[in-house]
């Protein structure tokens, strides 16, 4: 104890090269464990099944990563502020049916895309407003919009899938097209993830998200507009849900009111597995990308083994619990070492 | 009156009856702090013992040892002739010691009767709660105590005094023989306090003992038979209240020399940096006027709840408050902390962990967060610039950390506080409001923080308003001192005219009371 203190005292006046090395090591420490989990899973998958490394299969996995990954990026923003967004699946459904109806009514495709993104962002803004202005806990507010959104999608579509056969081919590129050998959704995800990571790392807004999630009162006293920050993360989450909905209907050529059912749980699972703390303030986009990959590879392995979708749910649920338990044990160990 | 006679009777009996509580050589340390040292204390049956001392004198540690929440490292605690070793809170209750805190520990949604018998409700033969028996026993206890309380009243709807009566009733229904009252007057009005005193007198007549803790000496003289003064964790004196006066107690409470840990100040106050008049916020702040100059340290003292922290929060725009006029560095009043920081005023809150630090984040993050525009390059945050800025402040403030990338949660309290000062410097703040600058900080780091504050004021012309419960700290650093009481500025002193005694008397409102009595 005393030795450690002396040690620090000597180091403090001139932070030497040692300090810089420490600095890099400390900052890059967290994500590394997940990469190994993913590598081991892929190795096991390749070992037990020839089909896994098949290019078609891998591209399929990547597409899956992209679709869930986009929503999970929004979820990561929300969870970083110690919030939760249960409404993402329902937002996907509302945007899916309204965009499909607009397409079917021959509204120009760029306008449909803008409208779809705006509806998503708008629903996110409703969440944000309820939470910041109304003071409603995020869980309850987004639970409300989740239920209302599903009902809204059902009402708009009268409960039926909405087809837009006339323009299906022109709209297909977003969900079905390829660019440089990779599906377009994968590129979209790559751009979204890169922008999100840049936003968190290199902008004041990103810093504010971490600050609000770490300690909202301290954030307020440090001059951060806490409500604006929280409002914006829900808006971003809604916007990305809208984007996901557009990719969905482009791929399926139909807007279904049941689209995105259970997507919120998938996104929360991916975010948490990716190392983002449900307590807020800790987490990265790189983790979320790895989380999406781990979940997709796991689902793929289970599919290749012919495990039933029901059993898959059990496995997925268990993994969420395990990931959170791991996080809690890590925290407990940290706090013990602090005092010891 | 009848109570008083009883009490004298009990006093006479003191010599004969075995004491209910004996503490011998009790000591308790926490990492870096000795909270209690070699404390001796006796309480006889039916005796009311006053326990007084400044904030941090060790009163709360002593209470926690009595309630079983802490265990003494040294010495022995004997309750009713039996030595207790590492008791649980339940053990202490069963041995007859009841501690009644300022904030009552009742379940607010339950009735008086339910709270009294919580965890030991009478049961019917079927194992269900016997409500009729509960009611009967409650009425019985309340009647015996002469408490005018409805056992069915929901405690959350009762007055503070009635809630304390409920706790006392609950304690005595457990056959408590020693009741510890922790600053009851802080939450009770004058009429309620009078009622409490009546109860204490009556119960003392029935051989129930009390330890009465208070800042307010007038009360101690009114209700206590004997008084013990704690200072710096030690018993420094005391005796029969009949043989002491206010003056004796005040000098016992504060009689410490200002240690040599305070830096020399050069007083060169500049222009007025912050001036507010007519600052009001409900009952917490009433028409407060305050001004601080560049290069000046203004100390604010007063008892807990006097409105000190509320004043700082109102100045920083953290809480709403009315103001007749407000000038900050020649500009207008900030309406929220964001504007305050942009205009050069930063608040360092009392509770560092819950309101100051971003514990999951690293030191650089914690330092740069209030001034992110200073580490931007072409609109984006520049990590290298951030680390450079953080390292410069780490060296300047001598923050002991291995690296700017170390989590702030790994730092000691003193170094966390320095990080918060670094944060306000990074944001280029010219007015610092520091609430309890050295709470939870060990002595060595305290000295460094004092030197840092003096340096900021003297060499860089920063205006500092400091709130502290530690009078030596106020006296050691301040150029001027305001004393707050009940939301108002009760007195204002130049450093040269103030002593601990003068400040304490002003904070307690003693002077006014003395004047009132004379007039």
Structural overview:
The complex is a heterodimer of chains A (340) and B (519). In chain A, α4 runs antiparallel to α13. In chain A, β2 and β3 form a beta hairpin. Chain A has a domain at 70-305. Chain A has helices at residues 2-11, 17-28, 32-48, 55-80, 88-104, 109-132, 138-157, 168-171, 173-176, 184-202, 204-214, 216-221, 226-252, 263-273, 285-304, 309-339; strands at 162-163, 178-179, 182-183, 254-255. Chain A has 340 residues and is mostly helical. Chain B has 3 domains: 2-96 and 177-254, Rossmann fold (3-Layer(aba) Sandwich); 104-159, no CATH class; 272-351 and 429-518, P-loop containing nucleotide triphosphate hydrolases (Rossmann fold, 3-Layer(aba) Sandwich), CATH 3.40.50. In chain B, a hairpin with a 2-residue loop joins β1 (21-30) and β2 (33-43). Chain B starts with a helix and ends with a helix. Mean pLDDT of chain B is 85; it is low at 1-15 and 513-519. Classes of the chains: A mainly alpha (340), B alpha/beta (519). Chain A binds chain B through residues 5, 8-9, 11-15, 19-20, 22-24, 26-27, 201-204, 206-207, 210-211, 214-215, 217-225, 277, 279, 281-282, 334, 338, and chain B through 316, 318, 336-338, 340-342, 347, 349, 354-362, 365, 368-370, 372-373, 376, 380-381, 387, 391, 394-395, 398-406, 409-410, 423, 427.
